[in-house]
Model the fold of this input.
Amino acid sequence: MLKLVKRKKALFIVLSFIVAACSAIQTLNIFPVEQDVALGSEFALQLQNSAKDYPVYNNPALKNYITQNIFKPILNSPDVLYRDIFKYNLEIIKNDTILNAFAVPGGPVYVYTGLLKYLDSEAALAGVLGHEIAHAERRHSTNRMTKQLGLQMLTQLVLGNNPSQTAMIVSNLFSGMALLANSRADEDESDRLSMKYLQSTKYYPGSVKFFFEKMRDDGKVSAGGGGVFAFFSTHPDPIARIASADQRLKDAGIPVKDYRATGAGVFKEEYKKYILSQIK
Ligand SMILES: [Zn+2]
Done:
């Protein structure tokens, strides 16, 4: 009995060290990179099987235009590390009421027709896509799962091992949109990387904020409509993020432009011609 108590105490001390180490290393991720790809494929399959909620917009010409002209050039940025490991792919979801885009682990990126119809320049779309690619690149979902799973597992170990309960926790973590609810820190990092990625493209690098600025000026930031809610559920604090983006541009010596800008790097006419006019 005493031996068991001693062993539990030793285990507890070891676990305490692990917890301390985990919180010290914020970016710790217990999942191998391949796990992001496997998770993303599974997630993509689930979305395909939920065609009622996530109907794919079947428009190969539009998908091809965005993929070749905007999505791929961003992926070619020297700061994108997993381009050959992740299964990067763009999919359009037909729902004109949702102004959103999201990335699942390991490469698949989804954009709603509602967002495509709302934006008014290729730069604005490039900014959003760069941001979503950054969520995948920085492995935000599996980082978050590591933190949650880490704590859950440690609690399980300390309280006594119960395999069925552990299996339940894991399956809960792996299912549902919880994977996509990003923290403010993740959002900031993705905004920062969007700017970095876009610096090697023809697009204005600060364009991640164009979407937020347009939302703000259209009075959609404080409104609580369905589409707006969907956007804020996965992308918190747009107003503060505009200020952060402006500051980053200043720090990098890049002129601060807003979404009303025209001219070099914005591509409004092209957006009308090759994207807006192609959406029914
Ligand atoms: Zn985000």
